[in-house]
Design goal:
Elements: E1 2-6, H1 8-18, E2 29-36, E3 50-58, H2 65-73, E4 82-90, H3 100-111, E5 118-123, H4 132-136, E6 140-144, E7 149-152, E8 158-159, H5 161-171, H6 175-182, E9 185-188, E10 193-198
Helix pairs in contact: 5-6
Length: 204
């Protein structure tokens, strides 16, 4: 098993195929890939290793997330040193000899020298995720988030509220009007489970 930083061009098709959301986040992200030998797959590198799992770390959509986490965890967490684990996925069926906890540990080892101190992630019960992988990887459980309103299109596909927020700002209209023009309706999501891992103490 080898773990390397990978580009979005490598990560995107894998995430779109194997993550339940079917979507790869945009913006500034750090991607890592777990490669294994002796596995057939569509994404193989020059060393004959096949991409088995991918992580995506980035900046969360909530600008006050660090402040909120600081209150819950009862310690200082800086936005500058906080990353959100946005995607974690692997090929199915899983291979028991390559646990995702080991993959996460290697990713976090590579993130430490970059100055990051904390990783936050969320498990979504809507998709049957209990957060067991985070518990096994020594993340601290910090309770549930509040229920949120997300948008859904006419085909029932979930669209993040950022879509109509940005559309409203660009066009100088209300969020309600933006949803109407985009053909979206509001749906209330279930609360998610919140998990936090301290990589190292803050250097500030």
């Amino acid at each position: 098993m080898k773990v390397y930083p990978i580009t979005i061009s490598t990560a995107r098709p894998f995430i779109e195929q194997w993550h339940y959301s079917g979507r790869c986040p945009t913006g500034k992200n750090l991607f890592f890939g777990m490669y294994v030998t002796g596995l057939s797959g569509t994404q193989t590198n020059l060393f004959g290793e096949t991409l088995y799992a991918v992580t995506d770390y980035g900046i969360g959509v909530n600008p006050y997330q660090a402040q909120s986490l600081s209150k819950i965890a009862n310690r200082t967490i800086d936005t500058e040193h906080l990353l959100e684990l946005k995607r974690l996925c692997r090929i199915e069926p899983r291979l028991e000899q390559y646990p995702l906890t080991q993959f996460l540990a290697r990713c976090h080892k590579m993130l430490k020298p970059l100055g990051y101190t904390d990783i936050v992630s969320f498990s979504d019960p809507t998709f049957g995720h209990s957060g067991g992988i985070y518990k096994a990887a020594n993340f601290q459980y910090l309770g549930k988030t509040n229920a949120e309103n997300h948008a859904e299109d006419s085909e029932g596909v979930s669209r993040h509220r950022r879509l109509y927020f940005r559309f409203a700002r660009r066009n100088g209209i209300s969020n309600e009007e933006a949803r109407k023009r985009l053909g979206l309706r509001l749906v209330k999501t279930q609360p998610k489970d919140r998990w936090l891992l301290q990589l190292q103490r803050s250097r500030t």
